[in-house]
Structures are given as C-alpha cells and as structure tokens.
Amino acid sequence: xxxxxxxxxxxxxxxxxxxxxxxxxxxxxxxxxxxxxxxxxxxxxxxxxxxxxxxxxxxxxxxxxxxxxxxxxxxxxxxxxxxxxxxxxxxxxxxxxxxxxxxxxxxxxxxxxxxxxxxxxxxxxxxxxxxxxxxxxxxxxxxxxxxxxxxxxxxxxxxxxxxxxxxxxxxxxxxxxxxxxxxxxxxxxxxxxxxxxxxxxxxxxxxxxxxxxxxxxxxxxxxxxxxxxxxxxxxxxxxxxxxxxxxxxxxxxxxxxxxxxxxxxxxxxxxxxxxxxxxxxxxxxxxxxxxxxxxxxxxxxxxxxxxxxxxxxxxxxxxxxxxxxxxxxxxxxxxxxx
Length: 338
Description:
Shape: globular
Structural class: alpha/beta
Low-confidence stretches: 1-15
Number of domains: 1
CATH architecture: 3-Layer(bba) Sandwich
Strand order of the largest sheet: 1-13-11-5-7-9-10-4-12
CATH topology: Glucose Oxidase, domain 1
Order of helices and strands: HEEEEHEHEHEHHEHEHHEHEEE
Distance between the termini: 33 Å
Number of helices: 10
Helix content: 10-25%
C-alpha cells in the first residue's frame, strides 16, 4: 500500500483525508481494525459522519440535467422473499365506495427488499456491536434524524467484467475482488472522494427481474449470488477509500452463501473458531467494526445505463431512512440526481 489514500492498483481516495489507514485502525482501547471512538464514544452514525455540510454543497453541483434515478425496488421484490423471510401482505382498508383508504403492511420486514443494514443488524462474534455498546443503543432513527446527503459514485463492475470477457455469473457465488472494484473505477475515470456513497452494480437485480416464477420459487428455498469477496481485503479497500457507505444491487453485498468459497473442511474449521468467522462473512468486519452501512438490492441498472451514455459515474445522492426508534434496517428511499 502507498501513501495516505493510495491503493496498490486503481484509483485513490481524496488526499484531504485525515482518517487513519485500515492498517492503522484500533488502539487506545479500541479493537484492532476498528474505527471505534473515531467520532466519539457515543457515536451512532459511524461512517455517515463523513457526510458533512461542505460535501453536501459540493455534491449538489453535480445536478446538471435534472435526471432523477430512484434506487428503491418494489417492496414486494424479491418475490418470494429470500433468506427464509415471510412474504409481506398489503391490505388496503376501507370500502371501495367509502371516504378513503389506508395501507396496512402485514409481516413487513424492513430488509425484505431494498435496504440499508443499520449498525444494529450485525455484531462481531468477538467484539460485539459497533463501538462496544449494548444491544439497543444503535438504531436507524439516528440516521433518519439527520438525513443522508452527499456524492454517489457508481462502480459498474458488471459492465467492466463483461468487457473483460468474464461476465458475472448471476446464479453462482461469483466473487468480485477489491482490485476488480478499483479497476472498474479506474477504467471509468472515477476518482473516489472522502465521504462518497459507493454503489456497486453486479447486474443481479436486473437479472432477477427476468426470471420465471418457478425459478424464483426455487431460490426462496436457498440460493447463490455473486458479490464482493468476503476476505479482509474487501473491508480494507472500502475503509481506505473512506466512503460513507457501500451499496449494491444484489441481496447480500458479498457472495452468498457465507463460506461458499471454502471447502467443507475449511468452512467447518472457521465456524468453530469465533475469531475467524469474519473470514466467511465480511459484514462482521464492515458494520460492527468500521461503522459502515451496507446497502442491498438497490436498483442500479437505469443509473448505470445513463452513466455509460454520459461517460460520468457520479451524482447527487439523497437517502431518507425510516425514523424507526432503535430500528435494525430501513428501505433507503434513495435518489441519485444528475
């Protein structure tokens, strides 16, 4: 690794960052490879702290054409739900000839469709919740109370991999390495800046929309999907870019299922040792250790098509999570405006 903000290959984070490198995280009572205490001991925002007023103002200048891209999928997608979740039922109250209607969502899961994983979603098997706080300290309401506004950059890895003659396998645990993300940004001419919201297009959600109902039904009982490699290098790359958050258009950001890239023997050995479990599931490094939010099932195809036509891969980003007290997750209600 090079000087502050540099990677071995690909683009670099903005040189104005005073944040420590991943290799230098921890100490002063904080666990290794953690950002605990960086924004104070009572912090509930994590890397969202990087969305400063100055960066919001700078990002607003990216609005040139007024083209708006909504990133939320239909609330009922995937259908049937994945990961054993229960299907939502939408009830519209009131008679057809009555004075009006209300919506009631039965069995609605905030992580059933497009979502931000909040800091209460995943704990580290050794160190616990972000910042070492007890369960219930964190909640998505802390993010909703301030709103999320800044610059988004798109890494269209699906398009880049196809150009390399290695299209992503959408029905397999096809890993996307950290260096492939960096190479994609480099090929696009996209230079990351501190506090960016990094959006990674795998092409999975667009592929899913085209599936027949019987295939979707089979996937509800267990599926594989491509995504970021679960190794520590992924967490290192994301931190050293100093992004505010990372989101993707697949169900899990990283490859699914956890451990798919290991042999049965390796997987069993790792699962038996709590200190090694993040080797299978990089969520356990990103959320509780770095305080970085993960977005999943974002609609990115229309944005990617526009970026490819225009030759630029950035935009003004807004997100208004639900103000759900101590909530675990929320639909992003996210827009990119260009």
